[in-house]
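Cross-posted from the bioinformatics board.
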Amino acid sequence: MSTTALGPALARKRVLICVGSGGVGKTTVAATLALRAAVEGRSSLVCTIDPARRLANSLGLSALGNAETRVPASALEPLGVTPRATLHAMMLDMKQTWDDLITRVAPPDQRERILANRFYQSLSTALAGSQEYIAMEKVWELRRRGEYELVVLDTPPTAHALDFLDAPNRVLDFLDNEAAKWLLAPAMKAGKLGLSLFNKSGYVLRGLSKFTGTEMLQELSSFMLSLSGMNEGFRERARGVRALLEDASTGFVLVTSPHPERMDEAIHFNTLLKQHRMEVVALVVNRVHPMPTEAMWKDVATVAPGRRDKVEQTLRELKVLAEQDRQGIAQLQAACPGIPLIQVPRFSLDVHDITSLWRTGRFLLGDDTL
Amino acid sequence: MWVVSGKGGVGKSTVAAALALRSARAGRRTLVCEVNTQERISRFLEHPAAGPEITLLEENLWAVDVRPQEAMREYGLMVLRFEALYKTVFENRLARYFLRFIPSLQELVLLGKIMFHLQEKLPDGRWRFDTVVLDAPATGHAISFLSVPQVLVQTVPPGPLSREAQKMRDLLVDPAVTAAVLVALPEEMPVNEALELHAALTDRVHLRTHAAVLNQAIPERFTAADLEALAGCPELRDVAQAHHDRAALTVLAGTKLERNLHVPVVNVPRLFLPAFGREAIEQVMGHLEALVMGET
């Protein structure tokens, strides 16, 4: 029986999104949550971004691809538990997912034109948050298909938290820009691409073209017109994605490490999630240095002198790290009042095999505590 | 120009701060650039945040946080020359809409501002900055950020944008001007990312890797005999074993970096200080001595 906030979340939520800075162990936390949910009886999918081959191997898969793959029961054998539901895993291929999306929503006669356009490739990465958007769009798609009771998303390392949360709005904003529509459409329909025809904004556009070159503006506007055919489908999905983020069955798991910078970023992220009225289920502080115990200090006295110095030095170093972490975590909790905080210790080696994932899970669910 | 990058959380800003401080101490006018972040470097060095304007932190050391809006404005003014014209163009809804959709324009102006300062001269003809240290984004973002000039040269029709991109690319690929310093930790993923980053910078950006920094290195301390002797105290043995494993990982990571990158690998030992500030940066700086001073 779980004692942390993640227990009820694993039992009830349909979507869990792990967010946080790069290098804090989001992928591990995401995989662990899906594993625990499957073991406890909910069919789960972990959708990861990080190409951690060893994580794939630890799940008994040779590699993770864009297709959802069932984790074989044999991979879970070392745990000595029999999962009561299936566990699936996939690694999101951003480019492929964008192509799939375009193929799905673009009118058949425009499809090839868009996919082959030289602006298309940079478009799918140029708009801030486009990677984040496509990841969430995938989850929305999975959720709609309803094959899994729980989908856990491991998000891309986000340079700016806002890119992530604003992604659906930005896509909607792009599609809904009235100004662009009325300026572009009539000229395009008349087959007149010359931007100089926009009398009203001629001055502006002349200035703009000094900056970009006229040819560039013309090519870009013709590309955007070819996109306009898919506006409705695209817009509907973007609205769906936005609604999914705010849905009561969706929860965010904010992952951080006890490093001061990472924690500052976590606080910032938490504030933004709150502003966007999205629910933070738990704040996971990963790789916390445990404080050396009293017993350890006592034992040191029994060690032979030459070795004692080495062990004492190591314990002193660990104590410094543990104290730093403790202070930081207290500040973090104070800055995020009301958010359940869960600590996972730093294990002696990187978490890569299934038993380490299981160990991480014991801390996430409160079976073990630091 | 030193471009410092690596996986998220490996200590890029720490290394960038230490490189910049050492360079300034050596009497070189040094500019350290962060790209649209919550400014860490000035904080590490215990100075007030520099902000989007170039700010003198201490002798020979300037800092700037390059931000998109300000960089776009500076660049726009440079091209359009008049404030009024800039306002008409850049504050127009339609124009802003277009600008947002020009692929990678934001990255281009950010990089453009940094490259501008790299070439800036004083009235007496000397470089305004002898050294520029760029605290670049993490691996994936760094690759797309630094590839922008190359990509634009290929995708954008000839015009002012592609001319600017061409100039920037020439500076990035010039081994006498620009080199990368890749930062990793003694763990599997950060090392693999450093190798991927090196491959992408070499093949796609044509940017030279100068050195790798293995941060938070753990020196060897416990011998096999030590571990055996501690068998009677299992908890202490675990502590010693963990230390021993991390030291072994440090050796492994160093070897892997050296063999694949063919550049010097500098170890920066893990620090055990109660707080992370100037003292930490100065200690890190001590370990980067050869890296900075080898390049006079």
